[in-house]
Amino acid sequence: MTGGGGRPRLVLVGPMGAGKTTVGRALARHWDVAFRDTDDDVEQAAGKPIPEIFVDDGEQHFRVLEADAVVAALADHDGVLALGGGAVMTPAVREALDGHTVVFLSVGLTDAVKRVGVGVGRPLLLGGVRSRMKALLDERTPAYRGVAVLEVATDGKAPDVVAEEVADLLDGWHRPAAGPDEQEAPR
Question: Which of 66, 92, 110, 156 is deepest in the core (most CB within 10 A)?
Answer without folding.
Answer: 66
